[in-house]
Amino acid sequence: MLAIRTLALAAAAFTAGAGVSAMPTGNLHKRLVDDLSHDLVDEPTALGRFKLLNQSINNFIFNFLDPTLLNAPHGPDGIVVLATAASFPATIGNGVAMGVGFMGPCGLNVPHLHPRSSELLIALNGSLVFGTITENGATFITSTIKDHEATVFPAGSIHFQQNLGCDPAQFVAAFGTDDPGRLDIAPALFQDLPADIVSASLGDIGVQEVEDIAAKIPLNVAWGTQQCLDTCGLTRAGQWTPEAIAKAKRQFDDFMRQGSMKARDFVGLPVAKN
User: Which CATH number fits domain 2-192: 3.40.50.720, 2.60.120.10, 2.40.50.140, 3.30.70.260?
Assistant: First the structure.
């Protein structure tokens, strides 16, 4: 996250020092973007939209290092900044959008889908493991793309990317519409759908269990796999440490000794390393 803030401050300093007309920021910028977006949507011709945009050269420029965007709510290990119809009015009617992912060590762009567009994604300054599945009956595809290699995710496919390295990495994603949309799978399943329906769909695991999982789902970009965290010497907040596992097992064994059942291992816990 330090790298993201550093890039943002550098961009702001460059703009101020170069004497460039600074773009409005914060709430004023949002109001101007919203007003322009509404006008562009109402304008039926491409020429008319161009004339609206041409009232300021700033309307043709999108800064992926804008501190306003980088300070928006995001996960513990990075952020994805999107230039779409919602944030960059110049894309409206042009059938394009773009996202730039700033991923910390082991950062995971969580499983998600774009309902209205395919995606072409290129890795920068690192290697990314990716995975995707398109529909029932399809085969899950996974591989690794290195710096300046790219891959494609079909529209509506569930996919993810994870930074494999212990240093920050980036990606650039291009879309074939100005409004690709995004649905994160875990929050949609465990937080948005009724807990009893989700419980039944998962073999009746219990409503409380569904709610417990929902409470632990992080924002994107999240910490990635435990193997990567161990390699990089990182610890995710709230994870099961060896000490926490040992304590939970002792508590469970104490509980079991109170009844007629014999104490046994608590199978639901991860295995601690020696």
Answer: 2.60.120.10
